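U., I forgot to send this yesterday:
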Amino acid sequence: MNTYKPALTLLFLAFFFSNAVLAQGEKPLMPEEQIVSLNQFMDSWHLAAAEANAEDFFGRMREDAIYIGTDKSERWLRDDLRKWSAKAFARESAWTFVASERNWQVHLDQQFAICDELLITWMGPCRATAVLTWEKEGWKIIHYQLSVTIDNEKIESFKALQEQP
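Result:
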C-alpha cells in the first residue's frame, strides 16, 4: 500500500492546483494598470503609422514578427514589410488605424499577451489580432493579422467581387 502513497499524493496535488486555477476563471486576473499599459503600447504603435514614424512602428515589432495584411498575398516578415511600405512611410502618414474596441488575454506568466481589436480605417471597419511577447526592452509585437470585415448578409456579393478579374 505504501507504493500508492506517492501516486495518490501527486494526484491530490494535481487536482488541488487545477481547481485553484479554474477557480480564477478562464482568463487570468490582471491589474488594470497592465491593460492600460498594453493599450498605450498598441495605440502608440498605430500612432507611429499615422505619423509615418517608421522607427517607432517597426521598433515595436520583433525582428521575426509576422504581419498579415488584408490582401491574400500579404504575409510579411517585419523587415520585408518595412521595405514594401517605405513609400507609405515617406508620406506624412503611412496609414491610420484607430481602435474602437480592444480585448486582451494575458498568459499566466504575464510574458505573452493577445488582443483582438476593432479598427476604424480607410477601408471601413477592420478586425485585427495582435500577439505580443515581453522582452528585455518591454512589449514587442510578434504577430499581427489585419482583416477587412464583411457583414454576413453581404457575403454572396463579396464572393462575386472576388471572382471578377
